[in-house]
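lol so apparently i was supposed to do this last week
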Amino acid sequence: MKSENEVAQRVETLLGQMSLAEKVAQLAQIGGADWNFGPKAEDIIRERGAGSVLWLNDTKKFNQLQKIAIEESPSGIPVLFALDVIHGYRTIFPIPLAMAASWDPDVPEKSQVVAAKESRAAGIHWTFTPMLDNARDARWGRIAEGAGEDPYLGAAMAAAQVRGLQGEDPTDPERVLACAKHFVGYGASEGGRDYDPVHLSEAQLRNVHLPPFQAAVEAGVATFMSAYMDMNNVPANANRWLLTNVLRDEWGFDGFVVSDAFGVGNLVVQGHARDGRDAALRSLKAGLNMDMASSTYLENLDGLVEDGTLSGEQVDAMVRPILAAKIRMGLFEQPYVDEALLEQVAALPEHRQTARWSAQRSMVLLKNEGGLLPLSTEQQNIAIIGPLANSMEATEGSWMVFGHQPAAVTVLAGIQAKLPGANIAYAPGPDINRDVPHPFGEFNLSERKPIQTAEEAEVAFQTAVATAKDADLVIMVMGEKADMSGEFASRGSLDLPGRQEELLKVVSAMGKPIVLVLLNGRPLSINWAAEQIPAILEAWQPGTEGGHAVADILFGDVNPGGKLPACFPRSGTHAPLYYARTLTHLPEDNPRYRSRYWDGPTTPLYPFGFGLSYTTFAFSNLQVSAPQVKVGDSVTVSVDVTNSGQVAGDEVVQLYIHQKWGSDSRPMRELKGFERVTLQPGQTKTMTFNLGPDELRYWSTNVGQWIQDAAVFDIWVGADSLATLHADLEVVE
Ligand code: BGC
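anyway here it is w/ beta-D-glucopyranose bound
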């Protein structure tokens, strides 16, 4: 590993050799895909080099472009190849929302270790992961890509992903650079509509939206990506307060920031900048190092320096961290990739094993009336019904790397493999489709089936009903297709799309044992199913090994232990909905004022942190090490958790606090500790958590800074955000 001194010296030597045109090219990330507009990547690289190339997923082409950069460009500086490797490259892991549902940071960490290894073997140096946007509005499609609604859980998952992707040693040839995105507030778009404006107070930003990003900085994340939308009327891609004051000056981030795609050019479209020249100037002055794909820096920065609007030093300052990242990771010494490596790496059996383990740990048991689950492996006559039951795309989920061929074990295939001798009938029922097609649908050839006519859908419906009639047990696999969550995939309703609920009702009326397996990338308002279907497993979009993992859980080889990382609203119109709201003058636990709407309850269908197990757990003996402490001091909170059921299982012990008064009103509950623990039947473990200034402080609107108040705190510990085991803690001056 090079010392930071060596890195800095080499950066200055390079800067001394580079022309202005070359420096500006280091600030450009250029599209390498065939469909990319503008000059060809190789021509730009040959003429002046390039900071990075994205949207290319072709190992041979990486080497070809790199050869041009090294042998033909003026200073021979290698290119960083970047791609969105969100939840796996060849081996696909559960979507990030699902991994957060494991409440086990080892799950995203170990999954991203594999994703890094495979993508690096393909020649990729840098992935635009992790997405750290807090999402409290399930209508927002990109909730699938993050850790859900909570900043504390989000921060833990953020750090874990950075560790997994980057490792400890920047020269590790099996890791990639990570990118904390989208900085910041993107998940709070009005109405959950992708890209719409965001208005957040400084207190909301600092207490809720910034913590996962700060955790990523503390974990050493190499890069950041700024967000698309207007944040308090200033586009995040040109927001100096965010990119310089907070990120660099306060947090000491010394990596580089890339815009979101076309974000610099979009400053004009967004009605913020007058023209490209103005846009380049605003973004650069705000602290944005690299322009993703819009060519606005390439086209305008040279002129801005030449006419004296920008100084050469301002450009150099933006180039430095990009060169430093290339030097630190050893790109100058090892610019090429072995073209035979990927196939060997992707075939490693531990990759599939990690994917299966990760999927098992991510799933959440939402209901299990009468202990219907686990099912007996003696089951002989099973119907598997639903449009997602045999869909590899829906099993892998949203956001695959370019050119990825879906290859997941579907739920149907997983159950067939588990019960080779059983009679398993399958009927998809009617297809489900978006009303407005996905803008990238044309790239997703395997998803492009002709839309069913109403008659065809009816035949499919009746076939599914007949298939269920012949079975002794029905497993319905429903939810959302891969293109129904993610980017360009926000929606107004959170209901099961299409005729799925109608089919569920008809099949359920047959009175047979029935299990609902959900494959989806966001909370869904499955109100009817929650009432009427005895067993429901939230399997999310579980990845390559998803079908095996579902079968492992349904047939009892694995006891589910995941918990919801976001609450499930009863309706899309109830979003945004989250547990950590402040109280009001009429708290909802008052029996007279239970709902904020007169047309139904506004409590979530399933609360944050919720999830069942095949066993039961009891919490007791909640102890706080001291009833009273001084501001700045810490206490230990301990609790006994016992497996009170018949089988081994996992519980996620969750600690929540509420500050009863103070400089500002504080949320009625806030997660401040959690741990997933495995217990044998009858076994008890004492879990301990620390509560100190880090957990008790907050950013105060009234005071205008981070503070810790002297006040009394409620403490609850239990199995979800409705935990009732309670203690008080008094903090005094
Ligand atoms: C997305 C980013 C992504 C980038 C590059 C944008 O549309 O918002 O999350 O990393 O494209 O593909």
